[in-house]
């Protein structure tokens, strides 16, 4: 079945999704929508697509099966709710909403209506991260003790008028917009955390939101996960996300380009891995996609959205998993808000120095 699709929000991510969906055989893009008439007029002339500036007008289209929502996060909840009520399958950019309770409600509504509802956590479609999740699920590391999830990028490097991402009620800042990615990877591997043991949210240049987020989480099975995120880091050229995981049988380091696995012992080794270090690269772990833009993962997630709608495979990034990430973010916010004000370093408010030393001085 060809899926008749509308793309809502034509900023950076919306234009990326539009380009990819327009090139995939599963989709027929029938409408685009943005609050800027200039954007829809120009795109309409270039592409021949029908442009709208009113979301409700798009929902009244009869020849519509699914919708991509790539608007500022504050608009997600009402737009998604209307789309689900209309019986449309939904692909929404991350994070799902700024309210974990609202995210759970949307997940329940999509399930009740039997609709495919996916969130754009594209790292789950990166070959190295997918292989890391497979290895951990297969018990390659044995019992896991702790994990470190990191993201750094040069988003806010000076005091300036913020975009919607830097406003508390619209994008949520570093924690919601940046930390959501490594948190979602931890949720994928370990599930929802049971407790937030400590947290610190720090602002350097932003007036309304945090620029750094650090937290210590306890996951089921006693796994301790540490979050270290900074979107005001001038030492990196673009966003970098990585995981480090320690278990009784070894350790694993993984980022977007490479997976490094160290294993002790010679028994029960995963296929393709030996004792000691094994290094695998993204080029060997990435399945081909039918259209390339920015990275295979961006096409792969929309291909998966189409296949799920057509009943060819189960969902991977459904609203339920995204709600789990929003709940984790809320736990970190609550813990940071309850932390006592201190003149000591923020690191000391997160955890004892000895624990941080074991995590960072590996």
Could you characterize what this model shows?
The protein is α/β, with parallel strands linked by helices and 362 residues long. It has 2 domains: 3-123, NAD(P)-binding Rossmann-like Domain (Rossmann fold, 3-Layer(aba) Sandwich), CATH 3.40.50.720; 124-289 and 319-360, Dihydrodipicolinate Reductase, domain 2, CATH 3.30.360. Helices cover 36% and strands 23% of the residues. It has 13 helices and 14 strands. The protein has helices at 12-23, 37-47, 55-59, 76-85, 100-113, 127-137, 173-178, 180-190, 282-285, 296-309, 319-338, 346-350, 353-360, and strands at 3-8, 27-33, 51-52, 66-69, 89-92, 117-119, 144-152, 195-202, 212-218, 224-230, 240-247, 250-255, 258-263, 276-281. An 8-stranded mixed sheet has the order 8-9-10-7-11-12-13-14. Helix 4 runs parallel beside helix 5 and helix 8 (180-190) crosses helix 11. Mean pLDDT is 92; it is low at 342-362.
Brief synopsis:
This protein is an alpha/beta fold. The chain has helices at residues 12-23, 37-47, 55-59, 76-85, 100-113, 127-137, 173-178, 180-190, 282-285, 296-309, 319-338, 346-350, 353-360; strands at 3-8, 27-33, 51-52, 66-69, 89-92, 117-119, 144-152, 195-202, 212-218, 224-230, 240-247, 250-255, 258-263, 276-281. The protein has an eight-stranded mixed beta sheet. A six-stranded parallel beta sheet has the order 3-2-1-4-5-6, with helices on both faces.
């Amino acid at each position: 079945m060809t899926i008749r699709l509308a793309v809502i929000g034509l900023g950076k991510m919306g234009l990326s999704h539009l380009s990819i969906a327009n090139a995939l055989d599963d989709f027929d893009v029938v409408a685009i929508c943005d609050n800027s008439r200039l954007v829809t007029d120009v795109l309409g002339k270039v592409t021949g697509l029908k442009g709208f500036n009113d979301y409700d007008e798009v929902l009244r289209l009869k020849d519509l099966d699914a919708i991509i929502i790539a608007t500022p996060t504050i608009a997600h909840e009402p737009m998604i709710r209307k789309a689900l009520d209309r019986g449309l399958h939904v692909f929404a950019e991350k994070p799902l909403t700024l309210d974990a309770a609202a995210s759970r409600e949307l997940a329940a509504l999509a399930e009740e209506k039997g609709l495919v509802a996916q969130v754009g956590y594209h790292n789950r479609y990166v070959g190295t991260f997918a292989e890391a999740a497979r290895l951990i699920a297969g018990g390659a590391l044995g019992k896991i003790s702790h994990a470190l999830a990191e993201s750094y990028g040069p988003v806010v490097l000076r005091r300036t008028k913020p975009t919607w991402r830097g406003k508390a009620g619209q994008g949520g800042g570093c924690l919601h917009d940046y930390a959501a990615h490594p948190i979602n990877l931890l949720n994928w591997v370990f599930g929802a955390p049971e407790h937030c043991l400590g947290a610190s949210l720090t602002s350097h240049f932003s007036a309304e939101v945090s620029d750094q987020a650090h937290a210590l989480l306890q996951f089921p099975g006693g796994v301790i996960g540490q979050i270290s995120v900074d979107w005001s880091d001038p030492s990196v050229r673009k966003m970098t996300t990585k995981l480090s995981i320690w278990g009784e049988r070894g350790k694993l380091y993984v980022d977007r380009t490479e997976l490094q696995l160290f294993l002790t012992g010679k028994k029960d080794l995963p296929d393709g891995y030996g004792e000691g270090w094994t290094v695998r690269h993204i080029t060997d772990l990435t399945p081909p996609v039918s259209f390339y833009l920015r990275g295979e993962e961006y096409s792969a997630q929309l291909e998966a959205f189409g296949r799920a709608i057509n009943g060819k495979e189960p969902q991977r990034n459904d609203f339920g998993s995204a709600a789990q990430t929003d709940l984790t973010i809320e736990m970190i916010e609550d813990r940071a808000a309850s932390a006592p004000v201190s003149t000591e370093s923020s690191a000391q408010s997160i955890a004892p120095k000895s624990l941080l030393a074991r995590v960072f001085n590996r």
